[in-house]
Amino acid sequence: MKQITDGLFTFSGLLVGRVYLTVDSDGGLTLIDSSISSAGGKILKQLAEHGHAPGQVRRIIITHAHPDHVGSLPALKQATGAEVIASFVERPMVEGKAPVVMPPRESLNFVNRMMSGPPQTMPGTPVDRDVADNETIAESFGGLRVVFAPGHTPGQIALWQPERKVLICGDALADLPPWGLRIGFSAFTADKAAAKQSAKRLASLQPDIICFGHGQPMTENAAARLATFASAL
After folding, report:
1. Domain edges within the chain
2. What is the pTM of this model?
3. Tens digits of per-residue pLDDT, 68-84?
4. Number of Cβ within a 10 Å radius of residue 143
5. What residue spans of the chain are helical by DSSP H?
6. In CATH, what number does 2-231 get?
7. In angstroms, what CA-CA distances link 156 with 48, 102, 110, 130, 225?
8. How do residues 170-196 score in pLDDT, each as one tens digit?
């Protein structure tokens, strides 16, 4: 587990899909996303190595219901008893009551069609609290504001800590070599036009730190780099 800034960490050695941890003022912890199904044990092990018991995890916030973000949610929910929070749009997908929304295959080129698969339904985990745009999850990290960022999925959320200027963006943005900053891959992005608009909305926040679902957290010149990227969309 690696510290990003005071009270915010990311887990190490996960195969795909970043998971973040906040240390909260009530003495509890919040997990943001859960990676793939094999990641649960690694997450719990790293928590233990840093002196945290599973029961200290009070909340698990899901940015969106793709397999690399909800895969280990059932195991983590069972181990921690944490409250599960997701957007009201993503709730049916997190709960396994509706399939994940994928882009129309006819909209994809050959390479992306090969990467994309048929819509799948996740093993369901009950959502204890659903949230809407501009709500605040007050218990987590001094108050995380929910920012709807649809496109990659219809109900994806980002999380914004305004005092610290920290943005946790799910897959609304990624920072991966050799591409650098980008919106989600076309093969897995339901609506590219909406994704571009969401990237511009997030750029308007002018974050100092950006935490991606894929890629290393950006801690230097984040606002300027994101503004340049968004202006070119």
Report:
1. 2-231
2. 0.95
3. 999 999 999 999 999 99
4. 16
5. 40-49, 67-70, 73-80, 91-94, 110-115, 192-203, 222-231
6. 3.60.15.10
7. 30, 13, 26, 12, 22
8. 999 999 988 899 998 777 788 999 999
